[in-house]
Amino acid sequence: MRDQKESLASPPAEGGDGDGNCCRQTACDSNQFQGLEADPLFCLPYVNGYSLELKEWCKFFVEHLSPVEWQSDPMNALILPEAQRRLIKSLVTSHRYPNAARDEASLKGKGLIMLLHGTPGSGKTLTAELVAEQTHRPLLKLSTGELGSWEERISHELKKLLTYASIWRAIVLIDEVP
To answer: What is the pTM of this model?
Structure first.
């Protein structure tokens, strides 16, 4: 099951050379290259990655990548009564997700699910965005319209995207039709 999830978490192979040209974070740790003086390091000018905006695998030029700059206290931007803001913040910060566990059976029932409701413009989407900022996690936005209209397609797409979210430890926002 873990191998299956890891294969889903990486982009589809191009050309099928299988020699590991895909740069993974653990394989590209800059500390391991310190002290190499004479040997130049050659890399591809791009890395494969998943675009959270486009919801598809893309090539990203390395020179355009930069570290994520998280807000210092994002929950202050949430316009809610202080008691509700503290409740959301405490729920999110106290939730623990096991680092080593990747097996679906061991993770079953361990998620934090929040149902936000209200009129359009009341801050439901902003709340999810700020929770992602607070926890320093990626936000995977899904709309019901993107999943399709056939039961089999909805099930397949939702399972695939939730598997990605589980591997990436992402916050998932399922929003109404845009």
So the answer is: 0.66
